[in-house]
Structures are given as structure tokens and as C-alpha cells.
What we know:
The structure holds 2 protein chains of 2 kinds.
Chain A lengths: L1 H10 L1 H39 L5 E5 L14 E2 H8 L4 E7 L1 E3 L1 E3 L12 E5 L8 E6 L7 E5 H7 L6 E5 L4 E12 L9 E5 L1 H7 L5 E2 L1 E6 L5 H11 L4 E5 H48 L1 H9 L4 H40 L13 H27 L20 H22 L4 H14 L4 H27 L3 H12 L1 H39 L4 E4 L13 H6 L4 E16 L7 E8 L4 H4 L3 E4 L12 E5 H4 L9 E5 L5 E11 L8 E4 H6 L8 E6 L5 H15 L4 E3 L1 H44 L1 H9 L4 H38 L11 H27 L3 H6 L2
Parallel strand pairs in A: 6-11, 8-10, 17-22, 19-21
Antiparallel strand pairs in A: 1-13, 1-14, 2-12, 3-13, 4-6, 5-9, 7-10, 8-11, 9-10, 15-23, 15-24, 16-17, 16-20, 16-23, 18-21, 19-22, 20-21
Helix pairs in contact in A: 1-9, 2-7, 2-9, 2-10, 2-21, 7-10, 7-12, 7-15, 7-21, 9-10, 10-12, 11-12, 13-14, 13-15, 13-23, 14-23, 15-21, 15-23, 15-24, 21-24, 23-24
Chain B lengths: L7 H8 L11 E2 L2 E2 L5 H11 E4 L11 H12 L5 H11 L14 H13 L5 E5 L7 H18 L2 E5 L3 H4 L4 E6 L2 E7 L3 H11 L1
Parallel strand pairs in B: 3-4, 4-5
Antiparallel strand pairs in B: 1-2, 6-7
Amino acid sequence: MWAVVVRGFFSRKLRAVLTGIAVALGVALMSGTYILTDTINSSFAALFTAGEQNRSVVIVPHQGLGTNAAVQTAPISEATLQKVRTVPGVAQADGEVLSTVALFDARGTRLNKLAPNLVSSVLPTRFENFSPVLGSLPTTPTAVAIDQATAQRYGLKVGQRLRVAGSSVSATYRIAGIVKYVSSASFGGAGIALLIPAQAQRIADEPGAWDELIVAAVPSVSAKTLQARIRAVLPATLDVRTAAEQAATQTSNLKSDLSFLRTFLLVFAYVALFVGAFIIFNTFSITVAQRTREFGLLRTLGATRGQVVRSVVAEGAMLGLGGSAVGLLAGIGLAPALDQLFKAFGANLPDSGTVLEFRTVWVSLLAGTAVTVLAGLPPALRASRVTPIAAMREGVPLERKPRSVRRRRTVLVVVLALLLLRVVLAAGSGAGIATILIVVAIGVSIRVPQVRARIKAGFSALVVLVARALARPLAWRGITGRLAGDNTVRHPGRTAVTAAALMIGVALVSFVSIFAAGLKASINKDINSSFAGNLVVLDPNAAGNVGIPATIPTAIRRLPGIKQVTEVAFTEGKVLAGADTAALGTQPITAIEPNGFSQVYRLQWDRGSNATLDSLGSTGTVLNKAYVSGTNLAVGKTLTVQTPSGQVIRLIVRGIASDKAGLLGSMAISLSLARSAFSQRSDGIDLISYEPGVPNSQIQPAVNRILEAGFPQAESQTAKQYEASQAAKVNTLLTLIYVLLALSVIISLFGIVNTLVLSIFERRRELGMLRAIGTSRRQVRQMIRYESIITALIGGVLGIFFGIVIALILTAATLSGSGFVFSIPVGTLIILFVLSGVAGLIAAAWPARRAARVNILEALATQ
Amino acid sequence: MGPSGSGKSTLMHILAGLDRPTSGTVTLDGIELGTLDDKALTLLRREKVGFIFQTFNLLPILDARENILLPLSIAGRSVDQAWFDQLIDAVGIGDRLHHRPAQLSGGQQQRVAVARALVSRPAVVFADEPTGNLDSAASGEVLELLRRAVDDLGQTVVMVTHDAHAAAHANRLIVLADGRIVRDGAALDTDGILDLMKSLS
């Protein structure tokens, strides 16, 4: 029996290869994702560990809201440093500046736009991890050193000028050296500008203060002991860690930052595997139908149903394992390609070597094999229903048996196995894999016959309907078009599943494009209805907790024709008490200037009015209606809030308002409170309004000149320009998603190729007959091509249709009342439809040639 | 035997436990088939029944030897090498054991099929038009082979055919017409059978 399985597998090589590719591509994306993220993680871990080697203890401001909060914390004072130096056992202690900045080359080009850029201070030799590759470390107030990766990327040379724009000022320096960090060309993918301490403090707007203190112990004192001694003399607003702890903390913070990237990529891998499952299901279904006689023979010779099922399942397992193994290997090659993809979109991540963890191996092999086996299970069960008599007669229909208790038990076992798999995979952070397996299982086990029959019949009818409609124009092009149309509806179920594989990809692409179009339309509408000013000043590439310098408004207010400049800053706070559990936890907070905000920005008041803003003071807050809904919050309640610097304050709810453009976080507070209790020094955006009748052309250029001269990271935008820049951001993400979804579409093309090849094999007699009565090879090719195009277009039409439906349902379910504008990008969808047809044409190229090569006599002789 | 549509094949399917009778009982090697479920019938076929088909029905992916041994490998039984050698000798395909069915002539394929039917030493071999797809020389060889299986190996063979020449090889001749037995008795020679068939139509 095993021989039958193995021989059978290898005798259907082509089929195995085509189906195997479907599995392999999905698995490749999955293993590639794991390899890439593991590589990045381990690169960072190595970097962090190496960076802490010459230190014993580090002191950093306590981040009460977690290290991922986008907030500023108060720097560490020089007095604290002096105090640390007096602790017994300290051999040396120094301060370091490490703050977000923007970098510009001599031509004014912004460097590393989508990566973080930092300014750091030169350290005493004992602690310094940077070493010059060319030139030297900065020693004068006008010198800067730049990391090697940035220098190479932008062709920076020693002696050139580099502009560094920080939290309050910007300054131009001369490049004294190109540096590496320990042994790495970049500081973990971030651009770095190294200055002497005084200059670094000036740029970071932290005169006489530090972001981090670095301590070395005398040889006789351990890091742990020293940590305890320092801890005893410092306030709780500072964290004291051993160097090893600091490296571990940084590594784990980074891991959680990057887990988003992993999840993002894995989603596409799951989609690809899901599409692959359709192809496997379809291929096995067709093959089982073609092997009816063989199964009948085996049954006649005494094979049990179980043996037949196991033989098909074993074949699926071999295919799945083989495909997954190929996919795993391909993933090793794909990981750098994914890295390049992200680089192309501007994200620089360090990647030294390739990290292949054992987890990657078993998760990839398990997921690929499980998906294949599960997708092959329904056809295997169908194979077991072949009666022995089928071996003797042609065209015996498969036995239809009422579902027995045993069958139901089988389903139960499958479900339990899946749950078990879910638990096992949870260890490999494979929630998504489990989810997709469960989806497949649902497909397998829609066991209520009436429901399943109705779904099947409904979908097949839909396919036939669409096929007929699509085939009509082709029928005018002669008999080949007619035949192609008829062929697609000959096995509606088969066409349906083939088209469904493409449909999933197309549906996701259309859903994403519809959602993006809605997002863009919503941005436009919301900006128009909310923004009452003329100009917005912001940093379009803002990274981390630094927005724009709070010194900008003062510089701009001096311009004639400006009526008002109002500052808005973003921070976060942790709600500790005063509300339902649902409303507790870290919340985004928007800080506004109470006296000018309402003149440039419209809020829809639920409780209170614009006048309420005047009563904010240092104890009041206005809550966002979206935050309030579903909780017990109301005007007059008092919230206990912990600020980023660790202070705990009380805020009284003064009003409730909704905000369409999303400027308001969960709550609004006064800017002065944010500056004091929240230690928020920089601004998020500035809103500007003009005196009546002053044209934009008179003011925006002047504003731009001021920004260019002093604050190069900031940009002014009119409402229209802001809309355009937001849309551009959406488009960038959209392109990335399209690229990743393309893989699923490619997989579904293999499905079309496979189905065509198998159905051509089935129809050899017919093709031979057509050729015998005078059909040219050309016509045969054309027929197959039309068939493929129709199938692909069915996938396209249904995909677009379901994409719209999903978008409608999801926006209605999750975004109703949020002012989301539903907008259908007709142009994009038409392009998508045409591309589906083109995809069909591409898929048909090879099968069509194969069909045209059919030998007439041989084809007629086969039975 | 009997003309087309007389119910030959249906009767054979019922006798072999492939199909169930609407009334009546079937007893095969002392076992009453009507009481058996699908699984038991499968095991019964495995142990007690051999099949020979008109279209040979060899698996194209296996070679001759593997095809012959297929019933044993399905049942997970080991090969009785002496018995296998004897069979190969009898069917005369010793030099063709590692050929695939596509590399064998029709007569050779059917001889492989005969060996496959005999390899598990079944109680009964059912042969469904075993010469239907063969020329007269190959037919003669296969019929001779079946005859020897009965005479030398003591194998019971039930053959369905509408070829008078084939039917003449049997010990007992049952003739069906329109689903009914119209004659059941000792075998006749070819001419006798042809006369009988003429008289029936």
C-alpha cells in the first residue's frame, strides 16, 4: 500500500510540483518573516550587549508609562551626576545625551527620513563605543561625527557640512569623522550625529542635563552592589540598572516594538497559505476524480476505506512536507529580499548574518504540512466513498452516504486536534497559524449537509452566472470562445474553487484599496470640517517623542498678516482611578492653548462649549466623546492621572466633545500643565490663522523662510497640502501591502495553471477529436487561453464584489459614527479587473501550448 | 453466460459482495454475506475473493511484481515465496516481472491480473469477461491458464462471458436471459453452446 502512495506521488510529478509551489510560497513568506525578525532581534541584542560591556551601572529617567510611550521625560540633572560620583565604589561616572534630531546634508536634503536619527555626546575613552573609521571623533564645538551607514548612503565625506536640527535649535557642523558603533556601521539602523557634550546638550535642549548616566565600578565592587548603593541615594524618578539589565531591557523593548512588524508580515503569510489551501483542495479533488477507477480497484482487492483515506492523506503529507521544506529554504533567501523591500520604503534595520532558529523550522514545516493535509482531507474522504464497482464501470457516481456517527466523531477528532495544535503553536506565537487552520477546519467541517449544499450550490450558480456573462463577448469571436465558455461551466465546482483562490487575493486588494480610498476621503472631509485656520506647521517625518521646537510660534508671530499661532502638543498619561476599568490605562493626551484653540479648530461639543476650554487651568480636562462612550465618565468626575515623569495629578472633567479630524486624544489638557507636570517640552503641531483678507501667497513663503532658516525639520502646509501629504502616507503603506499581497495572487496563478493542466489531461480525447476534425493548434491554444481568462475574471469579479462587501461590513461594524466616508476607487477596481484577466492570460501560456501539442492519434486511443 | 443485458455482471457483483441483492441470500465459502457491513465485506474480499477484469485494471504506476502482490500488501500479509514462484511459473511472465503494465501486451497484462487474483489463495476467483479485450491467441492462453488453476491448483473460478469459446472451458454452464436462469447444467463444447444461444434468441 505504501508503494502505491510513494509511486503514485512520484508518477504525478508535475502536479506535485505545481501544488508544492503553492505551499512553498506561503511557507517561504512565513519562514522569511521569522528569519528576518529573528536576525534583526539578534543583531540588536548583540549590539546592545556589546554597547554595555565597558559599563557597570546605567541610570535613566523612569518611564512610568512604559518605554514605548511617545512622551518626553525630564532629563537627569548635573547635580545628580555629581551625587552619583560621590557613591563609594564608583570608579568613573559620566553623562550622555541621546536625543532625537533631524539631519540634513550640505544641500539641505533630509537624511534617513523614515528611520530614527539621534544626537549623542562624545564620552570619555573608557565609555566610548564609537570609534572613527575615517577622521576623528569631534573635539571642537563646530565638529560632528556621523555613522558610517548614513555616510555611505548619502555619500558624506569628512570636511563636509552637516546640519543637526534638535528640540529647539538647529546648527551646522563640519564632519570631523565617520564612525562605527562597536563593530557595526550604524547605531542599530538609526542615524547618529556625535557632538561634544555641550553642543549635544544645546541641540537636545537640555543645557547642563543628561539623558543617561554611565557608571563604572572599581574592580573590588560588583555591578549589583554598586547598583544597590546608587539606588539608595537617588529618587524613584530615576531607574538604576546594571549594564546587563540595561542591555536586556533594551533588547526586550525592541522585540516588542518589532513584534508589530512580525505580525504584519505573518498576516500575509497566512493569507498566502490560505490561498494555497484552496489550490491543494482543488488539485486533490480533481486527482481523486481522475483516480476513481484506481480507488475502486483497491477497494475491490480488499482495501478498507480507512486505507484509501490514509493513502491520499499520506500523499498530502508528503507533498506538504516537501513543499514546506522547499519553502523553508526559500525563506532563507526571501528574508534579505524582505529586508530590501523595507529599505526601499525607507526603513533601515540592522541585519548581520542570518538567524535560523529551530522554532522557524518546526513552525514552517508544521504549518505547511498541516494546511496541505487538512486541505486534502475532504478529497481523501471523497476518495474513500468510491465503490468497488467503480473499478469495473466507467462513470459510476460516488456513493452518497448519510453522515454516520463515526463521521461526526472523525470531525470531532479533527477539531480537537486543531485545538491541540493551537495550544502547541501558541508557544511559537502562531495564533495566526492556528486561526487559519481553524478556518480551514470550518471549511472541512461545515457538516450540516443542507447548509453546505446550499452554500456550494449558491456559489456554483454564481460562478456559472458570471462565467456565462463573461463568455458572451468571447462567443462572438467564434467557436473557440464558445467552447471555452462551456468548458468553464462544465465543472462549476472546480472552476469555483480555482477562481476562489484568485478571488481571495483580489478581494483583499480591493478591500484595502477601498478602505484606503475611504481613509483619504475621510481625511479630506474631516480636515475641511474641523480646521478653521490657514496653515499647519509640523514635522512630516517626526520620529519618537520629538515633534517640532516650541520656539517656532514666537518666530512666526512676528510676521505681519498673522493673526494667531496656537500650539498643540501630544503626550500620554496613565489613568489610575476615577473611571471604569475600561477607561483606565495609558491614554493619548492632547495639550492645547485654551485661549486660542477654538478659533482655529472646531470641536463638536457634547457637554460644554468653547468657553469651557478657558476653565482648563492646571486641574481641568475635556474628554473625547469616543473615550467617554461606554464608561461611567461624566462632567464633574475627577480622574487620577500619572504623568510620564511619574507625577500623579488629579483632573476634573469640565466638558465632553467629539473631534472629527482626530487631533484630540482621549482627553485635552492645557499646554501649561503639559509643560510642567508632563515635562512635554516640544510641540506636535502649530495651527496658524491669517488676518482677514491676507492671501496665502503673502504669508506661506515667509513662514517657510523662517522654518528653513531655523527649524529645517518643520514644514508648513495648507489644508490642501496637509490632505495631500496624509494621502501620500496612506499610498506608501498601500503600495507595501499590494507588494505583499502579490504573493497570494501569484500562488493563485499556479492554481489556475494546475487546474488547466489537469483538465487538459482529462480532455485529451476531446482535444484529439477537435484536432482531428480540423481545429488548428492555434485555435486550441486560443480556447485554453480564453478558458483561463474567464476563470481568472470570475476570480476578479467575485474578488472585487467580496472586497466591497467586506469593506462595507467592516466599516459599518467598526467605524459607524466615526465619520468614515465610504468611497469606492472605481479606477483602481477597473485596473484590478483588467489585471485579473492578464493574470489568466499569463497562467494559460504554458498549459495552452501543452494542449496544442496533444498528439491526435494517441489522444484518441487513450481511454 | 448470456446476451448483453441479461444480468451476468449484476449477478457476479452480488456474488462477490460488491452489490447487495434486493431479495435472497448469498453464501460465500460458508459465510452469509447479507449480514456483513461494509468493513466486513471489505475484509471478506481481501481474504476470500480474487478478481479478474475485462480491462485488466493493473495500476500503471506499479510494475508486474508489485501488481501481483498488491492484494497481500493491502492486507499487510507477507509473501509466500514458494507460492509466488509457482504462480509466476504457471502464468509464464517470469522475465517480465519488473515491467510496467504499459510495457506489456494485453495477454501479458491479463496473465499478471490472473496471478494477482490467485496470489492470496482466495476461495473464489471472479473473472468478468477476462478475454473481452484480447485477440484469439492471447484469449486461448488466458483461458488455458484459468483451466489449469482449476485442475492443478484446485481453485474455484466463476467466469462471466458472452464468448462461446470461453464458456466451453468451464465445468458448469449457467445461462441467463433477461435476469433469469434459463439453463444450469454441465458444460458443452463451443458448437453446443452456440446452438444453445441460437435457440434462446
